[in-house]
Every structure is written in C-alpha cells, then in structure tokens.
Amino acid sequence: MKQGWHSILRPGVQGGSTSFIGGKPCLPPSVPLPVCKICGEPLTFFFQAAFPEGHMWAGKSLALFFCSATYQKHKDKEQLPRPVHADTKNDFDIPAGELAPDFYQTMFRAIVFDTAEGALREDYQERVAYQEIEWEPRKAKDKKTPIILGGEPIWTGIKKYGKERPASYGGKPMGLLLQVAENFNFEKMPDAPPEMEEDFMGDEAFAAREEPNYTLFYEFNRVYLWGPEDPSDPVVYINVQNDI
Ligand SMILES: [Zn+2]
C-alpha cells in the first residue's frame, strides 16, 4: 500500500506553519485572491497543504478555496466541477487542456505554488477558524482522518458507479494529491458570513445554515484531488463520492 501523510490538527495561533486549516492563506503576493466564477462572491479559504518529501508534488503547496456563500444556491450542474467524464468508470484519460484552471475551476480554486514563495495574505479576512496541520506518515486507510496527502484513495461510493479514478491527463500519468474526509466540516469564525442553504420551510429561497461551520462540496461527500505526477503543469481534477 502506498505511503500517505495523515493530518493531525492542533489549535494554535497562525505563525510560520505551511500546512493549516483556516486563518489567512499564505500565497505568493502576486496571486489575486480568488472569486467565484458563478456568483462573483469572494471564495472562502478552507486549507492549504505543503506536500512533504516523498509526495509527488514535494516542494509545492496547494491552497483550496471554495464558494461557501452558496450552498445549494448554484444550479445543480454548477455545484460540482464540470464533469469531464461523468460516464467513465476508472483509469480514464482527461484530454489535455480540460483542467486548465480558468476553464475548469468555477466555484472553487486550487492554487498551487512553490512552498517557499508563500507569504501571509493580510488582505484576506479569515472565515474559517485556524488549526495547524502536522503530517504523520502512515499507510493505514483511516477514513476519519480529515485530510490525507498521497496514499491510496479510500472509496466510499456504491460500486456500480465505479471509482472514477483518472489515470492520465493528456496521456501523462496522474496520481492522488489528497483526499478530504466525508462529514468533516470547517469551523466558521463567529463574525463570518453563514453558508446558505435552500429554505424548505420559509418564504425565502435560501436561508443561513444554523451549523457553525462550512461544508466542502457538501458535508456527506468525500473529496478527492488528483494531479499529474509531473508537477510542471500543476492542474487539479476533483471528484467526490458518497454512499447516500
Ligand atoms: Zn459562488
């Protein structure tokens, strides 16, 4: 079984750590803070991971932003990234160009950069409570670990839908960058705007979620991020699975 790195979360004050949940992102100063291409709202910063030595993207970091203003607000087809190959099962090729961030990343943004170039972005107002991440090298398949870098995908879906594992991008081999556990939510700062959900009982179309957290691609989904093994074009493919 392939080596993975399991997250250990620790409360703390944001300082020099290069892997963490919430707080302010550390990005190269020249990178603009991302906005949602569907609704135009600023995207919420969820977490960033510095890939450790031994990971296929060692030396790089990935910061993940997602549109939390709009839980169930975007149309169904926009809630998840455009399905590149919704009908495929496993080990498929994604044609070159289909994962270009400007084209593929609509309600989320995965910003990839050399870890050494990250600088604290004071121009971002934090929405998710800060927690430091320490990575523990492990081979176990522990589905409750919030974030796992590398390793093997832990599939949760119903078998008939397949595993949707991409094999290559433009013919170049792909691997698992990281996965985020199902039912893992991100604690919201008290003054941050609430996530919105469909209002089934009231008069308005949407109402604030009462839970004091944000969900990433719905709380019941396990989220997988894939990328080319060669990080010279560090694009990201996202898919999700659930057993609902
Ligand atoms: Zn949006």
Protein described:
The chain is mostly beta strands. It has one domain. It has helices at 76-79, 101-104, and strands at residues 4-11, 20-21, 26-27, 44-50, 60-66, 90-94, 108-114, 119-120, 131-138, 147-150, 165-169, 172-180, 186-187, 196-198, 206-208, 213-214, 222-228, 237-241. The strands form four sheets. Strands 1, 2, 4, 5, 6, 7, 9, 10, 11, 12, 17 and 18 form a twelve-stranded mixed beta sheet that branches. The mean pLDDT is 88. It binds zinc ion (ZN). Zinc ion binds next to loops.
Mean of pLDDT: 88
Q: Tally of extended strands?
A: 18
Which runs of at least 5 residues are low in confidence (pLDDT < 50)?
Answer: none
The total of helices stands at 2
Give Rg in angstroms: 17 Å
Query: What is the molecular shape?
Result: globular
Helix/strand order, N-terminal first: EEEEEHEHEEEEEEEEEEEE
Taking the sheet with the most strands, its summary is: 12 strands, mixed
How many structural domains in the coordinates?
1
Q: Which ligands occur here?
A: zinc ion
Secondary-structure-derived class: mainly beta
Q: Approximately how much beta-strand content do the residues carry? A: 35-45%
* Ends apart, CA distance between termini: 27 Å
**What is the share of helical residues?**
under 10%
